[in-house]
Specification:
Elements: H1 6-12, H2 16-39, H3 45-98, H4 102-111, H5 113-128, H6 138-180
């Protein structure tokens, strides 16, 4: 848990009950932080800062691997959709090419204009995605997508793990800085007990 900035909360108008709770909370959080830092040999501010920087770098690298894997999945899914559109409209194109009379061709084109537009868009999309001239079988592309999704999920899990580690270290660093900053005396009345 993160330590609470009691001075800031008092300035917000929090009462004495909250202040007492925050005092106990901070004590518990500092205890856990100290044990964590001691266990991982990070009691030096320089070591802690270096660990945070290293964890940040690892998290960024894991995020870039995840983004690359996700982009590949998106591209393959777009390719599959374009392949399906191309293959579904190809019989109409083939039939159009077989028509010899220009008048009949014109009527046929008008009747199936949507298929021609879809086919043309599918060809452009396949060219844009770098699909081979001889389109692969649908099963192969689906299997490749499933493999890429599995890889993307592994990359995401790795990213989440590294991101959680980074946030944990950042919390420890913040708690360490709050605990080590000089405490300013409270303003207000002091109650002294007399014997």
């Amino acid at each position: 848990g993160r330590m609470v900035d009691r001075e800031a909360k008092r300035a917000e108008g929090k009462g004495i009950g909250y202040d007492r709770w925050a005092s106990m909370h901070n004590l518990k959080a500092w205890s856990k932080t100290f044990m964590y830092l001691q266990e991982h040999d990070l009691l030096s501010p320089d070591k802690l800062s270096a660990a945070v920087d290293a964890a940040g770098m690892e998290a960024r690298e894991a995020r870039s691997r995840y983004d690359a894997a996700a982009a590949k999945v998106t591209d393959k899914k777009a390719m599959l959709e374009a392949m399906d559109n191309y293959r579904n409209t190809y019989p109409v194109i083939k039939e159009y090419r077989a028509i010899r009379k220009e008048k009949d061709r014109q009527k046929f084109y008008t009747a199936y204009e949507a298929d021609f537009i879809i086919n043309d868009a599918a060809k452009r999309q396949l060219d844009k995605l770098g699909a081979p001239k001889q389109l692969p079988k649908r099963k192969e592309v689906v299997a490749e997508i499933q493999s890429l999704v599995s890889r993307k999920n592994k990359c995401y899990n790795d990213y989440r793990e590294k991101s959680d580690r980074l946030h944990e270290l950042m919390t420890m660093q913040r708690n360490y800085q709050m605990a080590m900053q000089p405490q300013q005396p409270k303003h207000g009345r002091k109650h002294e007990q007399e014997r």
